[in-house]
Amino acid sequence: MILRTDDRLAVTSAALGTALATCYALAGPPGQPYDEPAHWSTVLFYALRHRMPELGEPGSTYESQMGPAYYSPAGLLVEVLGVPGDRLGLYGLRLVGVLLVPLLAWLTHRLALAVHPDRGVAGFAVAAVSLSPLLLAIGGSIQNDYLAIVLATVALLQGARVLRRPESPAWRHLVVGVLIGLAVLAKVVAVSLLAALLLTYAVQRGVSLRRRAGWAAAAVAGTALSCGWWFVRNLAVYGDLTGAARMAESGYHFPPMRFSSLGEVQSWVSSLISYVFVPVEYYRNVFSTPAPLRLVAGVVTLAALGVLAAYVVRTVGAGRLGPALLDRPDRVLLVSAVVMAIAFYLAYSVLVWFIAARLAFLTASAAAILFGVASRDRAGDVVRVGVLGLYVAASVWLVLRASSVPAQPYWIFPG
What we know:
By secondary structure, the chain is mainly α. It has 18 helices and no strands. The protein is globular and about 60 Å long.
């Protein structure tokens, strides 16, 4: 079978991304990626005690606040390997996690084609999520983020398919809610997906308000069905829905962001660009990004923003933005999902606790698809090449740099 150029890009990128994620998994010292020691300890808790931990009890960590969607199967895998707490168990779990990289690539391809017929958009979206240094670094470490991204993409794919059918029965929307609930059990920030879905129902055209209200009720019920028990459990154990009070009592404090000066804003913007292109922060900033990579990342960022701005101006000026979106609820869902993920990240970071910018990557697949749609011109093609080229160069540098980090006191296996 001869593949089209766009399909070859997707397949090649998925294969290269899987290989790079494997390199990340083998090269990164255990515990060097942010939060990995806490994630690993939580996995061991599940493996050895066969239950959910409670914040503050011996053996628990701040990651004990999270739902069990990742830790339960991870703990089972480590137990099956028969080496809980050993290097073999840790590296085995990392390598099994790498299998999610090609899965996300396939889901992204399906989601792209479900909302847009252009295979070039699908090919770029797959390449973007498969080669993103941040997603590969996450995929090659022990954490619950990548599974949350995969589950979020599954929910968006099912939601997009259902929304294209005005006659779809309520039970299909209930299934979408169940999938969102599963994503919440992996990472609580996935609740933003439910907000995005409800917003999509609110603005959808051509369907009666009564029918849309029924769909919304079904989606909420589905979400409650799959993850509601976890919030009830938290309320019973901790006295609040997420365990935030017990986190504070246990000594975990993450002061919210404050944009009180221009310097703080610049620092935050620099952090965002770093996470998108060269995520040294994921490796605790023990090494710095080379000046050439920083320069290229800044130029590519400005160019990408320019492409997005030009697309919006062009489509608004031609009167196509409304029909392109509001007449296609599946596309509204993708836009809403990206906006809500970013909004929830910002709101939580400013109003409650500071959380890493990587949590805004929950809807990375949707964001890649939307950028692919916006960059379908000659200038966009140049920026696409720049983005993907920078991704590969940054990953090669990060893998080499991470493999040579001197011993750190927080490593899981010192020395």
